[in-house]
Structure formats: C-alpha cells, structure tokens
Amino acid sequence: MTGQIAFQGELGAYGHQACVETHPKMEPLPCATFEDAIEAVRKGRADLGMIAVENSTYGRVADVHSLLPESGLHIVEESFVRVHINLLGVKGARLEDVKRVRSMSILLGQCRDFLREHGFDQLNWADNARAARDIAELGDPAEAALASELAAEIYGLDILARKIEDHDTNTTRFLVMAREPDLKRRGKAGMMTAFVFRVRNIPAALYKAMGGFATNGINMTKLESYMVGGKFTATQFYAEIEGHPDDRAVQLAMEELDYFTTDVRLLGVFPADPRRR
Q1: Shortest CA distance to 165 belongs to which of 256, 255, 84, 267?
Q2: pTM (two decimals)
Q3: What are the φ and ψ backbone dihedral angles of 12, each rounded to 5 degrees?
Q4: Which residues are catalytic?
Q5: Over 80: is that where the pLDDT of 36 sits?
Q6: What is the pLDDT of residue 233?
Q7: Which residue, of 37, 181, 199, 221, is most buried by count of CB atoms within 10 Å of its CB?
Q8: Of 85, 54, 82, 87, which Cα lies nearest the Cα of 166?
C-alpha cells in the first residue's frame, strides 16, 4: 500500500518505527498529538493512522481508547512493535558524561532500573524523538535522551547505551486506523473484533452481558471501562474479542450483548498480529 500514514510524534518516534515496519512503502506523516494523527486521516491528509494503545511494561496509553469511538475511523490492523530503548548523546559523548536524561514519561517508566542505577536527573518531554532532536541542538555531552535507534540515525547522535529497557519483552501495540472498514479479510493468525458498549442500568447487567461470550466459546482479550461526559454514572466499555462478526458464535454472543446494553458500536474487524501469540 502507498500513500501517507500518520503517527504521533516526530520523525524517529516509535510510532515512526511502527509505520516503517508495518507499511514500509507508505510515507510517514508526523503529528503533534494522537488527535492530530486521527484528524489527518479523517480529513484525507493521510490514508492510515498508526495509533499506540498499550505497552507491555507501562500499560495502556492514557486517553487513547476514549478517542477511538469518537474518531469516526475504523481499526483495520494491529501491529506489535518491539521497543528497544537507547540512551542517546551528542557525538563523542561518554556514558559517564551524562547528568540529565529527557524523554516521555511512558519511556522513562520502561527503564526505571537503568535510570536509578546511574542516578540521572530525569526530564519529562512531550515526545521521545523531539527529545533526541533537542539533544542534538544543545550539543552538550551532559544531556541525553531516551529514544530509538532510528532517532539516533536521523539526528546524528551516538548510542551511549543500548536496549536499556527493564523487560526484554518490552512491546508496544499499535492500532492502524482508516476511514473505511474492511470486513472481507481473514488473517492467518485469526481475526479480532473491537467494539464499545454501555450496559443497561439494571443489577448484574455487565455480568449478564458478558455471559454470551462465555457460553459461545468466544475469547474476550480486552475489556476496559472509562467515564463518558464527565459523569461518574456514565460508563462506557471498550472490548476486543477473537473472531469475526460473520462467525456464528460471535453473532450469538453479540445478540446477547445487545439485549443487556443501550449502545453497541463496532470499531473494527482486523487480522490478529502473529506476534500476539
């Protein structure tokens, strides 16, 4: 596939890496925020959007799941990207020169052990790749950034320490968003279906709504709740299940879900990434 694919961050961000790995023929389009990346797809400036949703070490990316239902877009792919975190410094700098490290909080949280061991001052930056770019512009060997090898290449920085993440399975999951759904594909590793719903205000409504998936043998891989409209009493659930809406078992489970809910919206049907296993 050709065209442009939008991601949050600057060139060299892990979202950029995800775009290169997943759609190498597409032109990456950097965007300041997830909202901007989604809007670029909605307005036709990009064909796809690469949106980070969760990390195996840090957890879910704040607010992203609440953005998806209102985006008007559809999930068409998922991509699991192995995140190797590197300490980047200016040319000629040494590890012992570094006093301060900057990066996004989500990345700082993925290599706490390394940062604590070396006693670096930590600065929370809006974007990992921007941190790398700022380090290059500062030209100070006491300043360093946490970012990807791609960022080091782009901004001409030395890698002072490689793969410093706390866990050797550190992975970020991205969802690929498009303006139109694609319900015809069947993935070799199976299919995933994502949707949001609100339960009726009756006792045990959530328990009963989930019962249809259990009785029909449908594996629910994700269920998250979040408030909507700024009200503690208004709760929406984001869910992902294994299977395709055309599967008979999924149809039966969704029919039972519909009985106990006030609103169900399909967000995407997409092939499971083989790395999910």
Answers
A1: 84
A2: 0.90
A3: 105, -10
A4: 172, 174
A5: yes
A6: 62
A7: 37
A8: 85
Give the C-alpha distances (Å, rounded to integers) separating 202 from 206, 256, 260. 9, 15, 9
Q: Is the pLDDT of residue 266 over 80?
A: yes
In sequence order, the β-bridge partners of residue 82 are 171
pLDDT of residue 75: 97
Q: What length is written for the chain?
A: 277
> Given the DSSP bridges, would you call strands 121-124 and 100-103 parallel, antiparallel or unpaired?
parallel
Whole-angstrom Cα distance, residue 256 to residue 212? 6
Domains of the chain: 4-82+170-178 (3.40.190.10), 86-161 (3.40.190.10), 191-276 (3.30.70.260)
The SS3 assignment for 202 reads: coil
Is the per-residue pLDDT at 191 higher than 90? yes
User: Which stretches of the chain are assigned E, i.e. beta strand?
Assistant: 4-8, 27-31, 48-55, 59-60, 74-82, 86-89, 100-103, 121-124, 143-147, 158-161, 171-178, 191-199, 220-228, 231-242, 261-271
Task: Write phi, then psi, for 130 (nearest 5 degrees).
Answer: -65, -35
Concatenating the DSSP letter of every residue in 31-80 gives: ESSHHHHHHHHHTTS-SEEEEEEEETTTEEPTTHHHHGGGS--EEEEEEE
> How large is the average pLDDT for residues 63-69?
80
> Whole-angstrom Cα distance, residue 240 to residue 173?
14
75 within 8 A of 141, measured Cβ to Cβ = no
* Residue 58 identity (one-letter amino acid): Y
190 has a pLDDT exceeding 80 = yes
Quick check: helix, strand or coil at residue 25? coil
pLDDT score, position 232: 65
Q: Would you state the pLDDT for residue 211? A: 93
